[in-house]
Write a structure and sequence with these properties.
The protein has 328 residues and is of the alpha/beta class. 28% of the residues lie in helices and 26% in strands. The protein contains eight helices and 16 strands. β4, α2 and β5 form a beta-alpha-beta unit. The relative contact order is 0.12.
Amino acid sequence: MAGRIIVLGEHRDGQLKKTSWEAIGLGRKLSAELGKKVCLALVGSEIDGLAREVSGRSGLEVAVLANHHCRHYTPEGYCEVLVEFARTERPYLLLLGHTYQTMDFAPRLATMLDRGLIPNCVDYRSEAGRLLWVRQVFNGKLNLEVSPQGEPPYLVSLQQGAFPASEENLENSPRVEHRQVGVAEGTLRRKLLEVMEAVQTKVDLSQAEIIVAGGRGLGSKEKFQLILDLAEALGAGVGASRPVTDGGWLPKEHQIGSSGQTVTPRLYIACGISGAIQHLVGMSNSGCIVAINKDPYAPIFQVADYGIVGDVFQVVPKLIEIAREMRP
């Protein structure tokens, strides 16, 4: 059906990436607001099992764009398949998670469709029936509103963690549509020879279910050990505000905010963090936010679901004690 919202799902090893679940969540929200149907498109070969699983969990129809050349990702193969699909489908909007793979092929896809691409969006708003997409510039100091011009489809990629994921099991019967899509001979210029896993040296907080983050209020690197102890007791990841990493208390990869990581854990505990806007943009979409700060007027309380006005050196040890008693 022409005019649908299409979410382009990114997958690997039989699993849909979290960024794609976030795109599904926004797609469903836009579907309700705009009165347009939403569908997930998966490119690949032998992915029927994944398609049925995702359809059952999301309640969406899943279009499998099948081609044996796309068993492994290449930008040429994906673009050829998606261009043919888009010209047949004539969608209103193409939503993608903003990943390295997306930025490898999405500009090429936009060029082949003769359309613009609005990358790395963190928010949107509707004005007079059109969507205005929000991108952050100058390290998150300014928000830029961008409106697509011309006829659809419009291509938009979403910053990881900027929108809540949609993973609920709606107990729907899977709806999977198979489309065999051709790729012209001579199109593929690259061939996958081997997949090598890189050594993980960077802290990836995007997958953490619980994050304990500390700020300048801890006072020193030695006192920051309290945050590490709480994280260990909860089995959580460790985050920090910029003053902590600038001061050398933690490596830079633990920083959360506009110049660090964007996270959406189920539980985010902010300890001694005042709540500068640069930090809030990196964690405000967390499922549940608990803030601990002795300043009752700290900005962090404006986004917190639960606020504890008190000294972190008195509150956190009690939380550690409770967490250790609760864990098996």
